[in-house]
TrEMBL record:
Its EC number is 6.1.1.7. GO terms for biological process: alanyl-tRNA aminoacylation. Its main location: mitochondrion. It comes from the Eukaryota. This is Alanine--tRNA ligase. It comes from Centropus bengalensis. Residues 1-575 form the Alanyl-transfer RNA synthetases family profile domain.
Amino acid sequence: HYDHVGGGRNAAALVNQGSPDVVEIWNLVFMQYSREVEGNLLPLPLHHVDTGMGLERLVAILQNKRSNYDTDLFTPILDAIHKGCSVPRYQGLVGDADVGRVNMAYRVVADHVRTLCVCITDGVHPGFSGAELVLRRILRRAVRFSSEVLHAPPGLLASLVPTVVEVLGEAYPELTKNADQIMDIINENEAAFLSSLERGRRIIEQTVQQMEPSTKFPAEVAWSLYGNLGFPLDLIDLMLEEKGISLDSAALNELVLEDAKRKAGPRAEQPEHADTHLGVHSLAQLQGRSVQATDDSPKYAYTLGPQGQYEFSPCQATVLMLYRDQSLQEEVGAGQRCGVILDRTNFYAEQGGQASDQGYMIRLGQQDVLFPVKSVHLCGGYVIHEVTAVETLRAGDRVQLFVDEAQRLACMTNHTATHLLNFALRQVLGDNTEQRGSHVTSEQLRFDFNVKGPVTVEQLQQVEQVVQDVIKRNEDVHMAEIPLTLARRVQGLRTVDEEYPDPVRIVSLGVPVESVLACNSEAALQTSVELCCGTHLLQTGAVEDVAIISERQLAKGVSRVIAVTGRQAKQAREVGQCLAMEVDSVSLRMKQRNTSIPEMQNLSREVGQLTKVVNSTAIPQWQRKELQTILKALQRAANTAIKKLEVQQAEKKAQSLLAKHSNQPVIIDTVPADSLSILMKVVNELCDKSPGSSVLLLSPQASGEVLCACQVSKNYLPMFSAADWAVAVCTQMEGKAGGSPVVAKGSGNAKGMQGALTTALEFAQSKL
């Protein structure tokens, strides 16, 4: 702790007592125990001191300031806030002295904009769960203080980004690189929040108007505003307080508790993979017994056979230890699930974004008893195989391992395709395109990357073409282990921003690793070169084909693609071609100018069904986007054609009715109409042609239903209400109706139609 008063006084009594003069600047945590699930403390195998010093507080002392906000880490940002709003300069006031919380707002905005800048540039964007949700709330809190307290115009937060970059950019060079993207994300989220606030205010106003006097504001509405629009609960309280209305807090608390219980969900008795993740004590026991880490180099032991098939080398191993119920065991009985630790393995453990191998092991000399391997995990250098023992399994048993070769080969294919995709995206979208994450399974590959704008149809096609070209060339895939310092010097090396082991495995497509490592070599700029621990094909030709079947934005500036390879890619293209032919067929039929409403409605339904299929089926994404554009235009054309035909039909029926009821103040009749929409148009047309008339029409349907539509002349408002008229008539037919004082519609049963016509006339006469 540091005493700002100084002078050699004994300030020990003021430590951790909330005194602004005695401030903690450095904290030590002694890592000595592990608190177990049951609550008891177990000594950790290794003891450490975790040390952390607050940069801002240290700078405050060095610059002789009482507050972090008076240091040059914050003053440029506070000055920039003042320039962008219409309140007095920051004065460092707190508590009651800070009238209107203006100085607090300065501090909140300055602190939060720094957080936003660093998080966004690190790849955490405002979202709906975990860290993303926290950042979303931070951004919205900053927006509220900015707009409500500082009275700043929209855009203030984003305008502060260059100042934050100026202050922190030297320490965090990524800020300088990503400044434009940070500003775009902040602006987009601020606009969305301000729009939500406006919608929320309207909903609150409408709800208050509909409330009975002396009642509390419904908790369901408040919770919906909070959950669906992100409308802060404290702001709802504040707005209601201004109107002299209280919120039903007890009911709201119940909703909050219910939501918390729902999110917690049922607690599983044993977490998934509990027997494949070594606890800290078990790991220490293995190391204490000098159990050697698993040699997993055999996972890379495979070659291409003379017929181009992959041959995986056999692997025998010894069971070193078994792991079950969070403890190491020498023996596991039949039927029990456990983790098997071997001295060596050819199974690939899940890491580097690639799913683990599956397969089985057999005890040597016991060929007919298979121990299935469900998943494989790496923990502290030990490879743990998740196995359900079909017979008793013991430490010391000798086993032979059999990897599911089809699944492994599919993972290898998709992992090599992921490297191809990474290279192609950079070629098409530019060198600033960087990987944000990936996941490879035997079924598909997923790849996340940063991008400035939406990926176009043309760009998706170009990316696929670049990949196809490398596949057709059947380039050799070169792999080698090299020192990390040597790898870091490779120009154009594609890496994810994370820690790598030393030595590291490098994967180069088409160019030998020796050429990539040569002094001043630019070979890595022309092909895919990545640090990667995954398993890969030995030649790119075996990928056969890559089809991107999905592309969407995860957040502003980050896109995710999902792709399939080989036979699945071919199938996706074939299905895409079939759907394109179906869309062409509908398009041709639409151009034949059908004059029948039912025919056009059938075409409209067909377009709707095709749209659903196109949206949900695995086809190339560029083709999906093209077909979606065509189908959207076809749906608009169909809707326009139906409306046009309905109007034409309504005009004919209206002309006939006008001739029958020329200029009558009330027109009540039956008329054939295929839908309520057409019937309503006939009513509208009649009222347009005979402005003083009030019209109610019934239309019996083949199903036994009777449709009802009416419109009241404005001359007879408010005594005569269309809604009341329709309700009276449809009630007579055991049906329902609703609408406004001017227009209304409903339906009922044909049995009561004659009585309904009489009711319609009597009701109208009583109001005129």
